[in-house]
Write a structure and sequence with these properties.
globular; 266 residues; alpha/beta; binds S-adenosylmethionine; 15% strand; 7 strands
């Protein structure tokens, strides 16, 4: 039905939704994209109250930049002091996004073709907000490291598939807890759960107040945990001890933990 999108989307630009293929050319909602719109809109609405005091937003693993464009349409167009940088490794997505931004006259959104870990020098020394929506596997960890290095005040993550910790669990021999991950399906689920618990503790240990919640109804996505971290202190020794104790009990390997051993802010 034409104009059905207006019930879902409070933004201004019908042309933007067409460019993102959320609307068909004749203005109807594309059913495949409706689910994505709901997810992005939900994240945008959750984080918008946290963004208004801030100026620099960095979206990592941006893909087609639905989140960046929708944040721009809903928020940045009315806040001339705010800008958004979107980092994405795939060149063709960057080119498409640049064309959409030009056509939409969104001049405070910039696209950087880079891996997250190589993008540090292309970003300002500090940023206010880091988002990563379904950044694949360890890309979410790269987003955490970047957020810490850039002293972000808010880090909003919706992790994607995770394989690194499940692989590490496979080679762990430790005793009584082993049944938790002995079966492949349990290893995958427990590995994913443990990854997110470690991510939360890492953020807490660096002084963030962290809330992990269900992101959106499971009918919209199965990758459904949201980690919202807000900087309150410089560090939190209690959380650091909790992390160390957990890793003594279950000594999994994560690249993020290795990188944090030599961590210094940018
Ligand atoms: C599942 S998509 C999600 C895209 C977007 N955030 C969204 O929710 O629509 C993940 C995107 O992250 C990009 N990506 C994965 N690992 C990355 C990395 N290490 N650095 C930069 N981009 C990465 C992929 O190319 C892909 O476009």
């Amino acid at each position: 039905m034409k104009d059905q999108w207006r019930e879902i989307y409070p933004g201004k630009s019908e042309e933007l939704l067409k460019a993102l293929h959320i609307l068909t050319r004749d203005g109807k909602l594309n059913q495949d994209s409706k689910r994505k719109l709901k997810q992005v809109l939900h994240l945008a609405q959750l984080i918008t109250p946290k963004l208004e005091a801030h100026k620099t937003i960095v979206d990592l693993g941006a893909g087609k930049s639905y989140l960046g464009f929708i944040l721009y349409d809903l928020l940045l167009r009315n806040h001339e002091d705010m800008s958004l940088l979107a980092v994405e490794s795939r060149h063709e997505l960057i080119t498409t996004c640049q064309a959409i931004a030009r056509a939409s006259k969104f001049d405070r959104i910039q696209f950087i073709q880079s891996s997250i870990s190589d993008s540090h020098n292309q970003l300002p020394p500090t940023v206010d907000v880091v988002t990563a929506l379904h950044a694949c596997d360890t890309a979410t960890d790269d987003a955490i490291l970047l957020g810490l290095k850039k002293d972000a005040k808010v880090i909003a993550l919706v992790p994607c598939c995770q394989a690194e910790v499940a692989r590490s669990l496979e080679s762990l021999s430790s005793g009584t807890l082993k049944p938790l991950w002995a079966q492949g399906i349990h290893r995958r689920e427990f590995g994913s759960h443990l990854t997110n618990v470690i991510r939360c503790l890492v953020l807490e240990a660096h002084g963030y107040k962290v809330r992990a919640t269900e992101f959106i109804g499971f009918e919209h996505t199965l990758k459904n945990e949201m980690i919202l971290a807000e900087r309150h202190h410089r560090s939190n020794p209690v959380a650091k001890r909790a992390l160390d104790s957990l890793l003594e009990e279950i000594p999994v390997k994560m690249k993020l933990l290795e990188q944090l051993k030599s961590f210094t802010p940018d």
